[in-house]
From TrEMBL:
Protein name as it appears in the record: Mitochondrial carrier protein
Example of a GO MF term: L-ornithine transmembrane transporter activity
Organism for this UniProt entry: Chrysophaeum taylorii
InterPro entries named in the record: MCP_dom_sf, MCP_transmembrane, Mitochondrial_Carrier
Domain of life according to the entry: Eukaryota
Length: 285
């Protein structure tokens, strides 16, 4: 994702990113799950409707103590390592393969590398590919997490409930992340240091969460079956108290999204540097 190391083949980069994505997912969950639980309570539990982030956290503490902030952590703890491994490996493999298409030799290459306002089609295509691949693994895990966060058992027959909304949310979110990330990496010197990478990832991911937040809320409602399984968008808006409710939990969610992705990026960047040091990219010319 940082692309600060010399690149190997698309197959090798995909293989290296399997471990890098797993480390990213592990640190992502550990650093942000308490805030994620506060966000889920604000989105899915009518008892917390209209309360501030601090008020929700205080009430959760009074009702269940520390367990309220750890509830539902098992599915994302192991699951995040799986689906982010899938996400990062599919992104790196797709990006590396498309980046290798010579823009001077083929029309496809010229289209893939063309740039408009910092956006390159090869990054968009890679984002969509990894979003779909990630959703295959993530949807069941997110469904189980949301059900546990709301104190209800999950059912095997429902593990892909809300998968369509999951794909839409993930595609929007990752495109909003990877496109500006790629432009900043190529046109600035911010990626020369780990601190610069952390700042970029934290801010870009926070902004991406803000832009895609309505889809995040609808995704959680669909997976939780609120107000009922298969409810229409209109019914879900009514459950939320109107359009404004689409941003329920946005405060802790956006802060959490930026913070935990920044921390995870530091972990993965260090791993990629070590991968080069250990000779895992030895086939690089």
């Amino acid at each position: 994702m940082a692309h600060t190391q010399k690149r190997a083949s698309w197959i090798r980069e995909g293989q290296i990113a399997v471990v890098g994505g797993a480390l990213y997912g592990l640190s992502h969950t550990v650093s942000g799950h308490p805030l994620d639980n506060i966000k889920a309570a604000m989105q899915l539990d009518a008892r917390y409707r209209g309360l501030s982030t601090f008020a929700v956290a205080s009430r959760m503490w009074r009702e269940a103590g520390l367990g309220a902030f750890a509830r539902g952590c098992i599915p994302p703890l192991w699951g995040s390592t799986v689906y982010r491994s899938a996400m990062m490996s599919s992104y790196e493999a797709t990006y590396t393969a498309l980046d290798a298409v010579d823009p001077k030799a083929t029309t496809v290459g010229r289209i893939l590398h063309a740039e408009l306002l910092g956006m390159r089609p090869l990054v968009v295509v890679s984002s969509v590919a990894c979003s779909v691949f990630r959703a295959i693994f993530e949807s069941p895990i997110e469904y189980a997490k949301v059900m546990r966060q709301t104190g209800r058992p999950w059912q095997w027959g429902e593990i892909y409930r809300g998968a369509g909304t999951q794909v839409a949310r993930t595609t929007a979110m990752l495109t909003f992340i990877f496109v500006p990330y790629d432009a900043i990496r190529r046109h600035t010197s911010w990626f020369d240091t780990l601190y610069g990478q952390w700042i970029v990832v934290t801010l870009v991911c926070g902004a991406s969460y803000a832009l895609a937040w309505p889809l995040e809320t609808l995704k959680n409602l669909a997976q939780a079956g609120r107000p009922r399984a298969g409810a229409s968008v209109g019914e879900r808006l009514a459950f939320l108290g109107g359009v404004r409710g689409l941003y329920a939990g946005a405060g802790p969610g956006i802060v959490c999204g930026g913070f935990r992705n920044g921390i995870a990026m530091l972990t993965m960047a260090k791993y990629h540097a070590l991968a080069t040091h250990w000779g895992l990219r030895a086939e690089t010319k």
